[in-house]
Design goal:
Keywords: Coiled coil. This protein is an alpha+beta fold. The chain has helices at about 5-10, 15-20, 25-30, 30-70, 90-95, and strands at about 80-85, 100-110, 115-120, 125-130, 135. The chain has 2 domains: about 5-70, no CATH class; about 80-135, SH3 type barrels, CATH 2.30.30. It has 5 helices and 5 strands.
Length: about 140
Amino acid sequence: MGETAFALTYGSEAIAPDEMNLPSLRVQAYHPERNHKKLLEQLDMVESRRDAAMERIMQEKAKVAASYNKRLKLRPLEEGDMVLKRNFQKKDEHGKLAATWEGRFLIREKTGPNTFCLATMEGTPVSKTWNGMHLRKYYIDAV
């Protein structure tokens, strides 16, 4: 963020107790009247420092999201399409040679850009919402 949590909360930097006993320039140049005046000036600037820190956080989150989204593949699925869903319990039932994809399902509803509600071929709704990453379009051979 570029700022310490103490500085964002109180508007000034903290001095460690050990630093008070050492003859440093920071301790030797201390004047209570000037310090109080500077603290009041910095107190007015605290909100702008917090806003700047929040802006840096938002920029960093945007960079992370852009990095993730450039590898994301959206599936061109629509309501009414037939799909297969990923079988997550395959190793429990039949070991490593079990089918990776299961069933034929209909997309009942598109709830987000890449999330779908499914139904069985008979029309019974599937209990949870599925991400398009775990669905594969089912094609019928016209032979």
